[in-house]
Sequence to fold (229 residues):
Amino acid sequence: MAIRKTFEQDIQHLKDEILLLGSMVEQATLDSVEALKKRDMRWSEQIIANDKKINEKRFQLENKVMILIATQQPMARDLRMIASILEVISELERMGDYAKGIAVINIRMGEQTLLKPLVDIPRMAQKGTNMLHRALTAFVNEDAETARSIPAEDDEVDLLYEQVYRELMTYVMADPRNIERANWLLWAAHNLERLADRVTNICERTVFAVTGEYKETKPSYDELGETSK
Fold:
């Protein structure tokens, strides 16, 4: 019984750390878009530097999971939760990369002005981080019902991305010289669309951890648009 109690305490500690990592990713995402909106280079440089903290936290948590496996006696359901924790940690680290990518875009734009004021891109960031926050809460609470409901909201992010794409294309068609500045914003929006997709992955993992059932809600694509596993 003592071993079991210790195991449950260790799992709860890992869940608490996942929430902390999630808050770091949420903040990085919102900050990266705000820095882009204000064309604040120094802020973007700080976001890039802070990404190292996200990476470090990810590996710290993975190490704790490995120690837990080696020192405890996890049962079948425990193993599902442990595997899901590893997956969620990995998803969060990749989301941090998307925020870093937006910060890199802001810096690479140099002295160029934004092609247009940012409206839908900040909305994508707000929606995506809101989904992420609720998905992580569902994960740590082992709330499969909520986890099943969140992925449908990804359609809202997809619609915003399509709106950004259509609007940027009108600028390019009006003047082909706008193509580079349009591409910068399109990549920023693409990263936010991918973040929301990874939230659905976390929801799928939550359902798997709780019920043992796994059902993919939509195809997965990496940052360049290629299929990934």
